[in-house]
Inverse folding.
């Protein structure tokens, strides 16, 4: 019994040491949206991660899904053209450049809801920003904007278990907490580590739900500073759509 207790204590200590922690954080305001840059470290593994958030009150801003069927835009161009203050690349698309999963743009459904292992959630807006499980989504709620992707990274403020844990890549995501939401990007980590990173309180933003978007070479993040210049992480290939945020 003593050996079992000692073993449990050891496991708990190892688990605690393996947690990510915030090293530095800084904010930059642009109207109703805050760019939060967060540096994190994992002392047990020696790993580091960087998270950039476009953080906003979900009822004070409007979420937009911007189609790029013509392949003419990159994220920076799309954000400036549509007067968005911040944004990220969108969700998955197939080899023929057709969107995979639900898209609602300006209240019109342009691509249907799909069911699949990766297509586990929907980022949606109808006055407030929400992240819904695919089986929680209903068209009767008349969303103005929605995009389907996955997998879920965080749910009930805890990292989702069973995520892929071997391939590092840049990650794009959406996240929500009570009354606030964020679009964000994380430096190269596995999906499993991204879930753990986003479960750490990022300043005063404690994520309740986070949904993964198309990452790797599609990953992009853009934020317009108050002086008109931009903080930008550009995508490495053309993507089908973008998610932007504007003030109401």
């Amino acid at each position: 019994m003593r050996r079992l207790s000692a073993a449990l204590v050891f496991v708990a200590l190892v688990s605690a040491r393996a947690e990510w922690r915030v090293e530095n954080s800084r904010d930059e305001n642009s109207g109703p949206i805050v760019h939060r840059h967060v540096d994190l470290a994992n002392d047990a593994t020696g790993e580091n991660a960087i998270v950039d958030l476009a953080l906003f009150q979900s009822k004070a801003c409007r979420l937009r899904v911007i189609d790029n069927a013509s392949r003419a835009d990159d994220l920076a161009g799309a954000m400036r053209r549509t007067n968005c203050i911040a944004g990220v690349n969108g969700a998955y698309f197939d080899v023929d450049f057709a969107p995979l999963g639900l898209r609602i743009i300006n209240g019109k459904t342009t691509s249907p809801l799909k069911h699949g292992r990766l297509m586990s959630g929907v980022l949606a807006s109808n006055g407030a920003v929400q992240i819904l499980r695919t089986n929680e989504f209903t068209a009767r709620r008349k969303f103005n904007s929605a995009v389907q992707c996955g997998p879920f990274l965080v749910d009930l403020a805890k990292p989702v278990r069973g995520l892929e844990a071997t391939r590092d890549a840049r990650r794009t995501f959406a996240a929500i907490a009570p009354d606030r939401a964020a679009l964000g990007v994380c430096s190269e980590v596995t999906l499993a580590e991204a879930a753990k990173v986003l479960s750490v309180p990022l300043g005063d933003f404690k994520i309740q739900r986070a949904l993964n978007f198309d990452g790797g070479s599609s990953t992009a993040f853009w934020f317009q500073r108050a002086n008109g210049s931009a903080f930008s992480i550009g995508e490495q290939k053309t993507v089908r759509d973008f998610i932007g945020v504007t003030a109401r």
About this structure: The helical segments are 2-17, 75-81, 191-197. Residues 2-17 form the longest helix (16 residues). The radius of gyration is 18 Å.
